[in-house]
């Protein structure tokens, strides 16, 4: 009877680990030599039942388990995978082209999954344990990682990896994919160059960070740009005078946390032309809006919301979380600080679209007035894909920044 692949792999891994001298730096080549030795000269009798292809797979799995990220390594090397969701050691799901699929691989145990998590978190200089069971960090290639351990996670350690393309997406790619039209892309390019303050809103997975990256390609390379993020994910390629800052959580060594608010305040003393905050989720919204109101034209940020109007309501709430101000003053700050809200969405066919571009006109009768400039309208479906068009509803009203920058609307 043919032995279990998983049992043979686990027995070989235990044997190989006993032979590795952890008192020194062991190169990958030495580990591979040990694996080859256990598959050839020192091979157990059970390997006689394995085919050549199975032995090749066993060699790779053993190396990935010992020196890489175990079953996740193949997924991380697969460019078609955009998200990896690990719901415990025996439940892995992946996203490809917007669709979720169960993955046949699994970890040998919950302990092995925790070891991989500690490897990822440790490399990012973060700490996660039962006392602090939730952490956000990133891999060396920029992929976003979220970890939740017990006692918060009931069904085992939870690991979610949001992957970013190796080649950053450009505006031309968004046009080709049908996420924006040529007209809206040209309009937004002019807005960025003119120094309009832009806020990008959308739901989870709608492509806010990707879209923010695309807009930064339109920034003049002569400008000084400062980016502020919880975890550095942005891929700004065309700005040489770039400062990237990342928030820090408190840790067991006694290091005090450094928040987004701290970084925004520090950035104001660094002579920025533009300040870009990856995402605002709380009281840091007041600091971001104040930066937009103090001469840092062209600043940008993102936030979670269901519409452009809803984004303004959420920003009001976030500002009030950080400062006790009259609502009228908050709305005045928002209206004078933000020029455009770009709202993104993910449609039922899983495609990501720019749904609305809205201009903030000011405050009237105590309410912020929005003017929709472009709106995406569905026209039907073809082969399971939604078809539609971007309708230009109005011309932009406030043109002062365009005139000062010498850019035609």
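Q: What amino acid sequence fits the structure above?
A:
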């Amino acid at each position: 009877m043919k032995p279990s692949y998983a049992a043979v792999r686990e027995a070989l891994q235990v044997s190989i680990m006993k032979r590795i001298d952890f008192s020194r730096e062991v190169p990958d080549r030495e580990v591979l030599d040990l694996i080859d030795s256990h598959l050839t000269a020192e091979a157990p009798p059970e390997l006689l039942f394995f085919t050549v292809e199975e032995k090749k797979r066993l060699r790779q799995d053993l190396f990935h388990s010992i020196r890489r990220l175990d079953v996740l390594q193949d997924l991380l090397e697969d460019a078609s995978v955009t998200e990896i969701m690990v719901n415990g050691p025996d439940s892995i799901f992946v996203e490809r082209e917007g669709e979720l699929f169960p993955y046949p691989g699994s970890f040998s145990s919950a302990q092995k999954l925790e070891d991989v998590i500690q490897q990822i978190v440790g490399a990012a200089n973060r700490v996660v344990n039962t006392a602090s069971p939730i952490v956000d960090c990133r891999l060396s290639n920029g992929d976003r990682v979220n970890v939740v351990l017990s006692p918060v996670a009931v069904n085992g350690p939870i690991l979610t990896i949001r992957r970013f393309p190796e080649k950053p997406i450009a505006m031309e790619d968004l046009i080709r994919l049908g996420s924006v039209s040529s007209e809206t892309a040209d309009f937004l390019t002019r807005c960025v160059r003119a120094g309009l303050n832009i806020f990008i809103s959308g739901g989870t997975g709608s492509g806010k960070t990707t879209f923010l990256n695309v807009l930064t390609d339109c920034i003049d390379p002569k400008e000084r740009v400062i980016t502020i993020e919880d975890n550095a994910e942005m891929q700004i390629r065309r700005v040489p005078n770039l400062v990237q800052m990342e928030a820090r959580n408190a840790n067991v060594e006694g290091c005090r946390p450094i928040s987004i608010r701290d970084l925004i305040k520090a950035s104001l003393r660094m002579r920025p032309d533009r300040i870009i905050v990856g995402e605002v989720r709380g009281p840091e919204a007041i600091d971001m809006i104040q930066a937009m109101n103090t001469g840092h034209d062209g600043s940008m940020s993102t936030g979670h919301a269901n519409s452009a109007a809803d984004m303004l309501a959420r920003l009001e709430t976030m500002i009030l979380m950080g400062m006790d101000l009259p609502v009228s003053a908050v709305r005045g700050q928002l209206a004078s600080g933000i020029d455009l809200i770009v709202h993104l969405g993910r449609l039922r066919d899983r495609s990501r679209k720019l749904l609305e571009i809205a201009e903030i006109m000011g405050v009237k009768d105590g309410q912020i007035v929005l003017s929709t400039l472009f709106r995406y309208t569905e026209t039907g479906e073809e082969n399971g894909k939604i078809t539609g068009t971007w309708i230009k509803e109005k011309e932009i009203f406030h043109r002062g920044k365009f005139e000062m920058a010498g850019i035609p609307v």
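Q: And what stands out in the fold?
A: Residues 7-67 form one domain.
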